[in-house]
Amino acid sequence: MFRSRKSRALSAASLCFILHAHPGFAQDASFVLPPITVTATRNPLAVSRAGSAVDVIDHDEIERMGATSLRDVLQSIPGLYIHESGGAGSLTNIALRGAAPGQTLILVDGVRIGDPTSTDNAPDLGGMALGDIERIEILRGPQSALYGSDAMGGVVQIITRKGKGPPRKTVSVEGGSYGTLRARGAVSGSTDAVSYALSIDVLHSQGFPRYGYRATHPIFLSDGVTPLPPLPGSDPTNRGGATGRASYSLGGASEIEFGFAVNSNKISFDNPYAVLPVDVFNPFNQSTELNGRAYSRFTNKMFDGQLRNQFSLFATALDNVVAETESCPEDFISNCRTNYHGSRAGAEYQGDLNLGDFGKLTLGLRNETERSNLSHDLPANLGGGRAGDFIGQQTTNSAYALQQFELGDRLDLSVAGRVDSVLNGRAFATGRATAAWRILETGGKLRASVGTGAKVPSLYQRFGPYGLASLAPEENIGVDAGIDQPLFENRLSLAATVFDSRYKNLIDFTFNAAACPTSDPMGCYFNVNRAAVRGVELSARADLAPDEWRATVSYTYMDAVNLLTAQGLLQRPRHKGVAALIFTGAPNLRLEGRATAIGGVLDYGTVGPTRLPAYVRLDAYADYKIDANLSVFARLENLNDARYQEVYNYSVAGRSLCAGLRVDW
Questions:
Q1: What is the pLDDT of residues 110-168, one digit of tens each?
Q2: In angstroms, how far is CA 500 from the centroid of its own chain?
Q3: Of the candidates 157, 36, 51, which has an alpha carbon nearest to the alpha carbon of residue 432?
């Protein structure tokens, strides 16, 4: 309960996007399908042979966007919705195809990220520095057969840069509206046996009040009568992060790799749940988070490369201290500091065997243990000291298999299955099958997939104050079919997908003690809900004038319904569209205009579900390469000064300008 409350208080809206010039200014006039993807099959595969709906965003495209956060990078992807409320650094969630944020798996270099202390394990990306990313792969549809728990809506795989060739160094600085300053540096390279990459990214923003800023309707406190007190001048954010990756070749057949990331994020936030008006914008409301992840990976090839073995060790840790007014369980008028400590650690083996005419077989074993510890510091008026809320732990053992094979020179098929077993909990099995028919005459393909997904109950849902240890995993089954087709000598590329998913055993909370096996008078979590999500994803990219004008368009229609209440699911937009027009006709100059349109979204209101108005937002970007090493860039965001909300009563920044320079050598 407390974590859910805290999550709402820390939700955030986008603040400032900065455009970085990219080296080379490649015109990208050809829209042939990208050559490689990894996520779809856990090993390299040409996208033209993948039966799943996959998007790949490479490093150069990320640089052209001028992204400062994952939100900036992913916002135009069909079927993907991001909501944050209240400014830079606060809670940011990603959801794919109508799944909840905790039902969308996010991996960084193969390591699962998430918050073991949160209500549903959903990763909070607001405090994550962007780092030096090689590419991002977005795989839509249930993928638990390959990736286990949480991959019900799909997988977002972030792959950081691996050093290649002579040393490459980058430094950029930027600043703009709302007192925003950002600095970033990266270095990478390789020798015959060693590769290395390191990046540092820091951001400061004075921001704006996270709650009630630029609201278009009256806002009252939790009693529904008292008006919101005067807003503060700002809610600052200080965020920083470092990532590193290194590998050493032990010979032609073996390699060992290490990687790490550390992120810190300190923000001021607002508490709209406070009873006393003075506590809503009290400076006491602050969150300080430190999180990190690390992995080591040994890869060995045997039998002339026909068998590839990979052994991985991984660990993540999170330490978050939230100081919030009126938050003590012992006395809700007292101010408390709550301590969230979470961790995951484990090991995995994956073997890939090339069977020649019989395709490729992948087998894997995985062990993962997650822990969560929540406690709060009592204020002096309650005697001081520390009170424990709960300590939870669960271990999951998994085994999976994937068979890929090709029939003729056009048809690619894959079949996968997985079993996950939670110690002292439930076991579940998932499966997946895909097919891709390559249209060799035009370079396109027809594709289809069917898969099942599952999500293990979180530690809070099982062992928290309202938990139920016997909760069953959430489950879904999803199907999709689509076409990817380049036309007119690759000057036009079209993609279309239809999808349908059904969910069951969804975990909800009830205050009805009679519905709780433990008869807890305060309520409990239990498996009850069912839902259906269906829709269409469309995208197009066109070379309007060679080397001068390009355009991209994407649109998603989604119907997401709670089958028990026949009402729409909250925070799932029915309509989402993004259109961009890009000019590269002048030497060393790139200009882009973008329009984003979101249909009305149901959200948690003061007394029940409420519909947030639809909106259209315009952005403009420019970058200019002065010489081979120096670039200048600027971005004008929310050009039309649209007033809208992604989360109820949390508005976003108004018209904002950011600019800076970057040096590459």
A1: 999 889 999 888 888 888 887 788 889 999 999 999 999 999 999 999 999 899 999 99
A2: 22
A3: 51
- Using CA atoms of 83, 531, 501, 153 in order, give the dihedral in degrees to the nearest 10: 30
Average pLDDT value for residue range 74-88: 86
Tell me what percent of the residues of the chain surpass a pLDDT of 90: 67
| 3-class secondary structure per residue, 21-65 | CCCCCCCCCCCCCCCCECCCCCCCECHHHCCCEEEEEEHHHHHHH
Strand locations in 121-178, DSSP E? 133-140, 154-160, 168-176
CATH number at residue 277: 2.40.170.20
pLDDT value of position 519:
62
Name, of 111-120, 223-232, 349-358, the range with top average pLDDT. 349-358
Report which of 233, 231, 216 is spatially closest to residue 643, judged by C-alpha positions.
216
Is 319 in contact with 340 (CB distance < 8 Å)? Answer: yes
Looking at residue 235, what DSSP letter applies?
-
Mean pLDDT of 394-410: 95
Determine whether 567 is exposed, middle or buried from the number of CB atoms within 10 Å of its CB (0-12, 13-18, 19+). Answer: exposed
Closest CA to 462 of 422, 431, 521, 502: 422
| Beta carbons of 101 and 94 less than 8 angstroms apart | yes
Tell me the C-alpha distance between 501 and 144, whole Å.
14
Instruction: Report residue 61: phi and psi, to 5°.
Output: -65, -40
Show the tokens assigned to 224.
């529904």
- State the greatest distance between any 2 C-alpha atoms of the chain, in Å, as a whole number: 77
Q: 261, 113 in Cβ contact below 8 A? A: no
Give the pLDDT confidence score for residue 13 in this predicted structure.
32
For residues 378-393, average pLDDT: 85
Give the number of domains in the chain.
1
Instruction: Give the C-alpha separation, 658 to 177, whole Å.
Output: 6
Burial of 439 from C-beta contacts in 10 A (0-12 / 13-18 / 19+): middle
For tokens 């540092």, the residue is: 200
- End-to-end, the C-alpha distance of the chain in Å comes to 51
Predicted model pTM: 0.89
Q: 261 or 76: whose pLDDT is higher?
A: 261
Q: In the numeric block, which tokens belong to residue 105? A: 């798996």
Residue 168 has phi, psi (to 5 degrees) of: -125, 125
pLDDT attached to residue 70: 80
Distance CA 486, CA 443 (A): 7
What are the φ and ψ backbone dihedral angles of 23, each rounded to 5 degrees? -70, 140
Residue 33 pLDDT exceeds 70: no
CA angle 583, 585, 587 (to 5 degrees): 120
Measured distance CA(286)–CA(321) in Å, rounded: 8
Tokens of 608: 């029940």
Q: What is the pLDDT of residue 73?
A: 82
Positive or negative, the CA dihedral 212, 216, 220, 224 is negative
Q: Count CB atoms within 10 A of the CB of residue 194.
A: 12
- Average pLDDT of the chain to the nearest whole number: 89
Q: Which two tokens stand for residue 594?
A: 């973008």
Tokens of 170: 């980058």
- Range of the structural domain that residue 599 is part of: 2-664
- CA dist., res. 283 & res. 274, Å (int): 13
Residues near 441 by beta carbon (within 8 Å), at least 6 away in sequence: none
Cα 101 to Cα 121: distance, rounded to the nearest angstrom: 9
Across 382-404, average pLDDT:
90
What integer is the mean pLDDT of 608-623? Answer: 92
Cβ burial, residue 524 (10 Å; 0-12/13-18/19+): buried
Under 8 Å between Cβ of 646 and 638:
no
